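Sat 14:20. Reprocessing the chain from the morning session after the first attempt stalled halfway. Input below, unchanged.
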Amino acid sequence: MRAADARTATRTSLRAAGIMVLFTVAFTALMASAYTLTRPTIEASQNAARLRLINELLPAAYFDNDLLADHIDIGPTPTLGLAHGGRIFRARLHGEPVALIIETVATDGYAGRIALAVAVAADGRVHGARVTEHRETPGLGDYIDPRKDRNKTRPWITQFDGVSFAEVTPARWTVKRDGGHFDAPAGATISARATTHAIGRAARFAIEHADTLFHAAAGARLEDVSK
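Finished this time. Tokens:
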């Protein structure tokens, strides 16, 4: 009886294991199929969001290339706060460089990480900057995002538009409270300081590496561009 019981228990265990394997295989196949079916929709949505952001930074009349295709990836770049690397889009008009749209991160916001996209024109001027992710305090530090800024006529972040190091030296690329050039609302200086510094670092990065960034093959990944 004991041997029979043991065989019965073994068969039961094997049957249960077989059912679990079949379930796992079926579930994996289902998830893979769902991903394959939804991937084009997800990518289309992501690309649409990227285009909306780019058009906020750089009007469509300023470039005639396929910006989403004309990009390069960069490896980890501490200068830009990119621990795992990021992406840079290149804007061109009639084949000539117009601007670089650079991903950058301020790691020293009041509530931590502030992600931005910064468009830097070929002449070194900041064409525009937008915060793409943050956790700054609602109603206090979230004005760095123009969608949350109460000043709809001239959002705080638009003060960087058209500014270059030729007009504002690197030493003054900070908030006025620190002896710099840029405004910051009272009581929320940390958010402004972090964002200002990040935009300045992106502008300097674009200026110093413009030739490399514009001439790299589309889709290339540059691991050591900042070295």
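The chain has a mean pLDDT of 86.
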